[in-house]
Design goal:
Length: about 325
Amino acid sequence: MIEAPYIGSLKAGPLGTIADVAGVTVGHCTLDQRAVQTGVTVIRPHQGDVYRSKVPAAASVINGFGKSIGLVQVDELGVLETPIALTNTFGVGTVANAQIRHAIEANSSIGREWPTVNPLVFECNDGYLNDIQALAVQEAHFVRALQACGEEFERGSVGAGRGMSCFELKGGIGSASRVSDVAGRSFTTGALVLANFGRLSMLTLGGVALGRTLSAAEGHKAEKGSIIMIIATDAPLDARQLRRLSMRATAGLARTGSVYGHGSGDLSLAFTTAYTVPHLDDFIEVPALVSDSRLDPLFQAAADSVEQAIVDALFSAVSVTGRDGHRRLSIKDITTS
């Protein structure tokens, strides 16, 4: 049986997940009903009201074959206003509505005396295993995932990852963390991925081209699917620096064998918990930021944690049978069969 490799030389945090970044929590709502194999995953950057205490953030579009919502304003203003939600492609609008309702319930001035709220929803297409045309994801599923948020959370075939495939195996939710030293100070960087991409022949684990031994010749089959990569850090960075950090997700993704194919939606977002941006204040207090010349340890932590999170998604997943009898085996099942 193949074991999950440990990526890089940096140490992981105590949990080995994105929740090692203080304040970050994750929750799932999983739909597992025959042809319906899907769900919602929510990442809370802190336990407060994200609209009132916005979180510095930035995103990178590596390959834009995707239907996410909210990225335009994140790019313009450099902050998050809601928890981050992950779901299937056809569930984006419904989950965005749920985010809006949740924000309005907590802040009745939204859209009236105050500006509107920017919901942030990422997606991958789980239509191979899930009957995506059933439009099974409902607003209540976002609420359940939000309520389930905690430091301890499942990975693999859960939440938004329930119906996802990765390298033609079972994919889904994966997470990891790394601790790095920056000028004598220790910072934690964590990643959570929704892995739904890749061809089996390309699969590379810890530098080993495992996919070549697991797959037969496959001609010119297209790489279809997507991956969403969320990076959290407690290092004090501004939105410009966070965009640079988000780009380092590509290093971790590429190491696993992805070439960001035409039909693959590859998106990353990075945020910091080092400070928040108050909604109503006239001036913002920002801590001393990490100098650009000192960012390399954080770049390494981001790349390693993303790669490890993809490995985690593969090794945490269980085999799933869904729509029309379609089945994806977990990497553990395929390597022991």
